[in-house]
Please model this.
Amino acid sequence: MRYVLQRLAFYLFTAWAAVTINFFIPRLIPGDPVTSLISRQQGAISAENIQSLYVLFGLDGDQGIFEQYLDYCGQLLSGDLGLSFTFFPSPVSDVLAQSLPWTVILVGITTIASFLIGTGLGVLAGWRRGSWVDLVLPVTTFLSSVPYFWLGLIAISLFAGIDGAFPASGGFEAGLVPGWDLEFIGSALYHSILPAITIIISSMSGWILSMRNMMVTVAAEDYVTVAHAKGLSESRVALSYAARNAVLPNVSGLALSLGFIVGGTLLVEIVFSYPGVGFQLFQAVGAKDYPLLQGIFLVITLSVLVANLLADLAYLALDPRTRKEG
Model:
């Protein structure tokens, strides 16, 4: 219990530090976001209206940076992420609510699927080292070095287009209204096949290699030899003794991967024109959209912290040594 409380205190402090950095860093970016917003508007805007925009977005020169920071923290506590410059006058929370489910479902499912498939194949490759399974390793080594977006471009050229079996872009069929009906869900799943396969193939290879190497290392440990000497079955030794200890580094990697799910795979979303958070982040950077940048970074930061906390709890369950006091 003491370990859990210590970790919670650490993550709360980290969350406060992230919120503080999240406030100050966008304001160090050169340029004036209000001027960028005005340049996209048609027609002249009066000086009074321009000043009103500065006040609305919390960039009023009469207010000090510390006062702006306190106002920002107060808005966060009330659940207000501000108004987006890019999608003005839509609130940032509405923009994230529209794009976040696309990224979480696509990248979340593919990340977990690639972890499970890659870890399982890595256990097999490490436990059966020297067998035919090792023939897969050169392929996985090559695939792990290929970026997501490059595989995406290859997938589009081979399987999409006019004569292709899959759509080349978009999250659903044009003309459909997003909703929880079967027609829309089927269209969304159909459009996500190529991006999902691209992410799984590219990220699965890294899990295979890391798990295989850890299995080879763990298989030489004394407790595995003792388990064999007890006459335990091969599968029980492989899963309960070797794999359980070898998977610990992968759990940390999975926690980071899950945390960055909401950031999406930016280039994959651009290649497939997928309506996720990654593409929203790209647009926010180009438009100097402080509120949207801060909202996305805040969600990403909190996701990473929650994922790492879950990884610490998983360590408690997998490794008894973490449950003992020093």
Notes: The mean pLDDT is 77. The chain has two domains: 2-77, 94-323.
